[in-house]
Amino acid sequence: MDYAPFELLEWQSLDDGAAQYSLADSGCRPVTVRELLDGEDVLDHLLDTPLHYPPERGQERLRELIAEHHCGQPDDVIVTVGAAEANSIAIDALVRPGDHVVTFAPGYRQVWGCAVNAGARVEEIHSTAAAGWRPDLEALRAAVGPGTRLIALTNPNNPTGTILTEQEMDEIVAIAAEAGAWILADEVHRGTELLTDAVTSSFWGRYERVICVGSLSKAFGMPGLRVGWLVAPREALTDLWRRHEYATVSTGSVSMALAEIALTERNRTRLTHRYRNLIRESRTWLDDWVTAHGDLVSYVPPPATALGFVAYHLDLPSRQVAETLRARGDVLVGAGAHFGTEGHLRIAHGHDPAYLAAALDRTASVLKELAAVHGQRPAGAPAPARHTPPAPTQ
Ligand SMILES: Cc1ncc(COP(=O)(O)O)c(C=O)c1O
Questions:
Q1: Which end of the chain has the lower number of beta carbons within 10 A, N or C?
Q2: Per residue in 277-308, pLDDT tens?
Q3: What per-residue string of b and e applies to 258-269 under the rule 16 or more CB within 10 Å gives b?
Q4: Ligand 1 geometric centre to CA of 289 (Å)
Q5: Structural domains of the chain ordered from first start
């Protein structure tokens, strides 16, 4: 059976922790259970958590806290096993073979792959570093029509960190509304802003056909909890709920108990500050590295996320560069092709300083070796191909 793998995750899981330095996932140093419970008098409550099946849609208190985070209502929320489940069941609920689905590149390609595997006609709208990775809304307007079922986006963007302006959000809503299309807004990176303390606006409440996805994996620093969510209008909620039952039944009760603690107002603020402080500092280290190796690399400094989408000045495909970095430098990074855009590497910087410095040193050495063998593309010259063809099917 033809099946498009989720190339980024396949790349990470086949490596399976073998690379000495992994800058390939998109989080930051995670929170420990001890750090989360610091100052909380909850140990007895946690120890008494019954390990029975929890409510399928999620514990009511947790749904209330998630609803607050999006200014919605608890009945609009389904708690999922990470945003990964949320995106997957959203595509299963919304998309049928032949449907027209529009996504953005560079982008986190889970929704892209799920839609391809659902038999949709998937069209990517490409943005460029030269345009500061702003979304090309003229191209979006030209692509979307009455046959468009879904516009899927990630805000803030993974891998570029671009945050949509209010005007861009309004324009995307207007384009969707004109076509009657759904918007799937993956808002997992909300709270990772680097240049402002204002949390990125949610799409929730801007349009009746919007589904928002969130999780505790990024700004809260807890990917291991596997707690994510969907916020959806009644029109879609039942269909999503039925799919959630098939996929996972429910999220784990201990994870949900810890998630409730994480989402109280005190901890929401504490954890988001922690994460932002870490990635604001580590981004300066990545900035310094890019500046020091301006002959080899360049980038548009990201306004959010723990990621840098770094252009390398070589006429080589990104999968080859990433593979060489792994084989010769023992460093794992995401290849631009994994995000639909050639000529780049996605580098996660939210690491311990010594670890990041060693990994970046190795990265520079391997890029230098490649430049010596294959020659260098001058900084600013266009990458060989602006984007890559769809991932091969198996
Ligand atoms: C944009 C985006 N969506 C979804 C996910 C999956 O998140 P989770 O860990 O909550 O399943 C990620 C993880 O990297 C992501 O970056």
A1: N
A2: 999 999 999 999 999 999 999 999 999 999 99
A3: bbbbbbeeebbe
A4: 26
A5: 7-31+273-374 (3.90.1150.10), 50-267 (3.40.640.10)
